Amino acid sequence: DAEITQSPRHKITETGRQVTLACHQTWNHNNMFWYRQDLGHGLRLIHYSYGVQDTNKGEVSDGYSVSRSNTEDLPLTLESAASSQTSVYFCASSAQLNQPQHFGDGTRLSIL
Amino acid sequence: DQQVKQNSPSLSVQEGRISILNCDYTNSMFDYFLWYKKYPAEGPTFLISISSIKDKNEDGRFTVFLNKSAKHLSLHIVPSQPGDSAVYFCAASGGEYGNDMRFGAGTRLTVKP
């Protein structure tokens, strides 16, 4: 079965470190998204990609970057981790725009 | 500025009764609306959607209603079951946000046996 997997599921790191969260999907979807979930805010879009070599900033992109070198993967990088980036991060994909997105099970990131 | 609002953080209903979850939005250009369900330690899963050309969409026990003039949508679950206990997010896209989705903060539904 096709799926979308995120790794690691949990990570603890220190402020100032670079952190990369992995997202891999086997749906062969062109569209991939990264969200963060915080209490009182729901899910907020960080970055998204509509295909290989395409990346776009979302609502809360400061301090984050993504790259899309193939269809299956969209890694999210925190260049210099800050305590405000402690959150649960979700990756998602969709076949076409304005269609439901399939979500991974999330990465819980704690920055001390 | 939250474009999509779920003003009830939690809702508790008895098994077999109706659950009604509400969502309001501020951007009249949104044209596609969805509901997602989320269990602890899992990602959100798609439940039901509606486009702005409709005012109702049904899928089994789940019905979504859209009132464009009031910028309001609701999710009805009938009858409610204990397995429906989860956090429900509404989401919207369209307008200047294009295909970017804006999510509400979520409503935690508890269905008591």
Largest sheet of chain B: 6 strands, mixed
Mean pLDDT of chain B: 93
Can you count the beta strands of chain A? 11
Topology as H/E string of chain B?
A: EEEEEEEEEEE
> What is the string of helix and strand elements of chain A?
EEEEEEEEEEE
Query: Low-confidence segments of chain A, ≥5 residues, pLDDT <50?
Result: none
Percentage of residues assigned to helices of chain A: under 10%
Q: So what's the overall shape of chain B? A: globular
| Helical percentage of chain B | under 10%
User: What radius of gyration of chain A results from the CA coordinates?
Assistant: 13 Å
Structural class of chain B: mainly beta
- Oligomeric status of the shown chains? heterodimer
Key features of this structure:
heterodimer, A: 112 residues, mainly beta, seven-stranded mixed sheet, B: 113 residues
Description:
The complex is a heterodimer of chains A (112) and B (113). Chain A has strands at residues 4-7, 10-13, 19-25, 31-38, 42-51, 54-57, 64-66, 76-78, 87-94, 102-103, 107-111. Chain A has 112 residues and is mostly beta strands. In chain A, strands 2, 4, 5, 6, 9, 10 and 11 form a 7-stranded mixed beta sheet that branches. The termini of chain A are far apart. Chain B has 113 residues and is mainly β. Chain B has no helices and 11 strands. Chain B has strands at residues 4-5, 10-14, 19-25, 30-38, 45-51, 56-59, 62-67, 72-77, 86-94, 102-103, 107-112. In chain B, strands 2, 4, 5, 9, 10 and 11 form a 6-stranded mixed beta sheet that branches. In chain B, strands 1-3-8-7-6 form a 5-stranded antiparallel beta sheet, with no helix packed on it. In chain B, strand 7 and strand 8 (72-77) form a beta hairpin. Chain B is globular, with a radius of gyration of 13 Å. Chain B starts with a strand and ends with a strand. The mean pLDDT of chain B is 93. At the A-B interface, strand 5 and strand 10 of A face strand 4, strand 5, strand 9 and strand 10 of B.
